[in-house]
């Protein structure tokens, strides 16, 4: 059962044995510049490790990106923003074409460095995605912190079920009383909506990502 929480992982890798060392804390986001650091003893070898913000950021990013490995073919990064996912995904040579879609024109400039023959920025909102992508034209759809901004969820599920042929990987957060949310579907309800449309789903509740969840829907 999903439970809201305020925790982020703060971690790195042991200098001695290379194993991950981390704690959960609710005072600092790993992306926020801060002098905060911790000392932790590696659970594998006992070596003491000091974890600073730059270490925690790299650890957090790697943990996020581990959920988006193994993609291929045509990939849509939905709500790409400044290109956090796209910059990592474009390194994967198994991806033939990567589309980064966002409603903010500023994101086109922020992803300009990716604009070559394997990446294309699409300026569009989340409504009527089938106007921009033909049925069966996308192998994988990925998103992070996007679904809570979808207003017409039924149209959204219909569109991506038509567009995507292989897999949907969706990471996000859910806060019942957050005013930024445009729908109130809980993670289990999102997974159920995919299942109703013929997808097989796997859901994971993320204790290291503030009120986070991950859903993988595959055919």
TrEMBL record:
Its EC number is 2.1.-.-. Keywords: Methyltransferase, Transferase. InterPro entries: Methyltransf_11 (IPR013216), SAM-dependent_MTases_sf (IPR029063). GO terms for molecular function: S-adenosylmethionine-dependent methyltransferase activity. Transmembrane segments: none annotated. GO terms for biological process: methylation. This is Class I SAM-dependent methyltransferase. It comes from Sporolactobacillus sp. Y61.
């Amino acid at each position: 059962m999903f439970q809201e929480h305020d925790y982020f992982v703060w971690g790195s890798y042991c200098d001695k044995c290379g194993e991950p060392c981390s704690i959960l804390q609710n005072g600092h986001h790993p992306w926020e510049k801060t002098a905060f650091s911790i000392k932790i003893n590696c659970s594998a070898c006992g070596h003491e490790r000091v974890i600073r913000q730059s270490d925690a950021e790299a650890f957090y990013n790697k943990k996020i990106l581990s959920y988006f490995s193994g993609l291929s073919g045509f990939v849509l990064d939905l709500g790409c923003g400044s290109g956090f996912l796209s910059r990592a995904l474009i390194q994967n040579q198994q991806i033939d074409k990567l589309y980064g879609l966002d409603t903010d024109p500023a994101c086109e400039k922020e992803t300009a460095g990716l604009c070559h023959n394997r990446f294309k920025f699409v300026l569009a909102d989340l409504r009527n995605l089938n106007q921009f992508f033909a049925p069966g034209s996308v192998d994988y759809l990925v998103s992070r912190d996007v679904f809570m901004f979808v207003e017409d969820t039924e149209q959204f599920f219909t569109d991506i079920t038509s567009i995507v042929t292989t897999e949907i990987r969706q990471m996000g957060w859910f806060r019942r009383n957050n005013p930024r949310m445009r729908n109130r579907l809980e993670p289990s309800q999102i997974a159920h909506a995919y299942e109703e449309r013929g997808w097989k789903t796997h859901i994971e509740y993320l204790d290291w990502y503030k009120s986070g969840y991950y859903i993988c829907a595959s055919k």
